């Protein structure tokens, strides 16, 4: 009986760690044998459209247009703002000097992107959110990487939040860097990325995760998605746990729906795409958290006779207490922030699974005006 319990515990522990430990370690072990992709510096910089989808962004859109224009790009630059049924944002963007496409009604970000790509004046299109601030020359770094043969899109580098949240984004960036060395990454972020207009295929109307769908769709059709860590953008953290929970569970639930729509790519026959889907996305979002709950159940059953089980349970209590303290504004040390973040992400996974199973795919979500 004890031997059987040990085996079950080991299997559940391995399953829990697949997405956040085993896959990254295995990925790095393979990727480190590959050279960093070489990115050429063009003799002549091609013209670029910077596409900014915007809804309720009247307070930040002028600063965004200015940020793009001062980014240092050496070629012709068009700033195209797609105002998603938002006349006020459209008026401010036009006054700031952007070309504006005002949609007659709100369609959601994915459909705003479709309209913007169709209206873009150039082959090279940089996508960026209205509230993200580009570091100097981010556009140039993206365009350089996009000029490599076979590349259909390029993911930029996102810096968000501080402490444990920033550590999480740096971990994601490390995974994308390693995936990129193997030839392609799933980690396209709509806050800052670049695509070839000729490689774009319209995002279906039932898809809310525009960046994840775009990456998979390009990879399915033989294009690679590169990663350029020098193309940096900063984005303020949402902060409030209620808004954060809404966004993260919506994104995760929408991501699960994308994987269901593209489930044929989960087959081993899809090669690298399948491995990245399972390791980077699906296991971390489903089987890992479910295995975590299984471990908690075993720990509760063994708590009277096992110090390890007691330690495991106490760790969860500490993580929960740290999460509550953090939300109340209490300053806590970084280790406490890290375990709170881990627990929060596991809870988010269940929230995302629940939303996906309920068919809760919000295409035009409520958002605060900026």
TrEMBL record:
InterPro entries: Glyco_trans_2-like, Nucleotide-diphossugar_trans. It comes from Kineococcus glutinatus. Keywords: Glycosyltransferase, Transferase. SUPFAM superfamilies: Nucleotide-diphospho-sugar transferases. Coiled coil: none annotated. The keyword Glycosyltransferase applies. Residues 49-189 form the Glycosyltransferase 2-like domain. This is Glycosyltransferase 2-like domain-containing protein. The keyword Glycosyltransferase applies. It comes from the Bacteria. Belongs to the glycosyltransferase 2 family.
């Amino acid at each position: 009986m004890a031997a059987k319990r040990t085996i079950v515990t080991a299997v559940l522990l391995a399953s829990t760690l697949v997405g956040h430990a085993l896959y990254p370690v295995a990925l790095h072990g393979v990727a480190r044998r590959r050279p960093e992709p070489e990115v050429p510096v063009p003799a002549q910089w091609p013209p670029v459209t910077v596409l900014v989808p915007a809804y309720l962004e009247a307070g930040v859109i002028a600063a965004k247009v200015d940020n793009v224009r001062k980014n240092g790009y050496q070629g012709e630059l068009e700033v195209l703002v797609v105002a998603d049924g938002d006349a006020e944002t459209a008026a401010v963007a036009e006054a700031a000097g952007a070309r504006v496409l005002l949609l007659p009604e709100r369609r959601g970000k994915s459909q705003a992107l479709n309209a913007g790509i169709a209206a873009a004046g150039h082959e090279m299109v940089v996508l960026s959110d209205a509230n993200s601030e580009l570091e100097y020359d981010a556009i140039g770094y993206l365009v350089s990487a996009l000029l490599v043969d076979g590349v259909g899109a390029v993911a930029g580098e996102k810096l968000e939040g501080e402490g444990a949240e920033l550590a999480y984004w740096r971990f994601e960036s490390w995974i994308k860097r390693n995936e990129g060395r193997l030839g392609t990454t799933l980690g396209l972020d709509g806050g800052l990325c670049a695509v070839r207009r000729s490689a774009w295929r319209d995002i279906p109307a039932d898809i809310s995760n525009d960046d994840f769908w775009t990456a998979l769709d390009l990879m399915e059709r033989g294009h690679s998605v590169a990663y350029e860590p020098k193309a940096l953008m900063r984005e303020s953290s949402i902060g409030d746990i209620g808004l954060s929970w809404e966004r993260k569970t919506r994104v995760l639930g929408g991501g699960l729906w994308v994987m269901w729509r593209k489930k044929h790519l989960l087959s081993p026959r899809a090669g690298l795409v399948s491995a990245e889907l399972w390791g980077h996305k699906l296991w971390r979002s489903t089987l890992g958290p479910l295995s975590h709950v299984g471990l908690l159940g075993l720990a509760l059953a063994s708590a009277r006779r096992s110090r390890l089980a007691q330690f495991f349970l106490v760790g969860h209590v500490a993580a929960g207490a740290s999460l509550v303290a953090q939300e109340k504004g209490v300053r806590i040390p970084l280790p406490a922030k890290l375990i709170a973040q881990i627990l929060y992400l596991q809870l988010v996974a269940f929230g995302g699974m629940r939303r996906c199973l309920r068919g809760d795919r919000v295409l035009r979500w409520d958002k605060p005006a900026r």
